[in-house]
Write a structure and sequence with these properties.
This protein has helices at about 5-20, 25-35, 45-65, 80-85, 105-134, and strands at about 65-70, 100. It has about 130 residues and is an all-alpha fold. It has a two-stranded antiparallel ribbon with strand order 1-2.
């Protein structure tokens, strides 16, 4: 009948019910998918997660800037664009390849890269689903 929001709500409830029948480790992954993007039925959440991760990364790298890989050749460091370089897998601002984080910054960088890939694929799937409906 054209009630897309209600249909997504029903499909989301179906996924949540299905999750209760799965093994514990798959159930844990289901909880993560549900919170992060509502099993793909709430792709706007991915945008919110990207913004939150951007703010966290920019704050961390603003306080703890990574060292340049080649002194004198690196561009001026920008914590926001460095974090965007880590988060968004498709585009580059030239920051990620010019600087090398250390210690906890390296682990944060790994986490941002992984989260960026997961969230970018979720946003892509959500956009393609929205386009295919039209």
């Amino acid at each position: 009948m054209g009630h897309e929001d209600e249909a997504r709500t029903v499909l989301l409830a179906k996924q949540r019910h299905r999750r209760t029948t799965l093994s514990p480790h798959i159930r844990a992954w289901g909880h993560i998918q549900d919170v992060a993007v509502g099993y793909g039925y709430r792709p706007a959440r991915a945008g919110l997660w990207l913004m939150a991760l951007l703010v966290c990364g920019a704050l961390f790298f603003g306080l703890h800037p990574p060292a340049p890989l080649e002194a004198g050749k690196a561009p001026d460091f920008n914590a926001v664009f460095y974090t965007l370089d880590l988060l968004v897998p498709i585009i580059t601002f030239g920051q990620e390849g010019a600087f090398a984080p250390r210690d906890s910054g390296q682990w944060l960088a790994y986490g941002l890269i992984a989260a960026g890939w997961v969230l970018a694929t979720t946003v892509t799937a959500g956009v393609s689903r929205a386009i295919s409906r039209q």
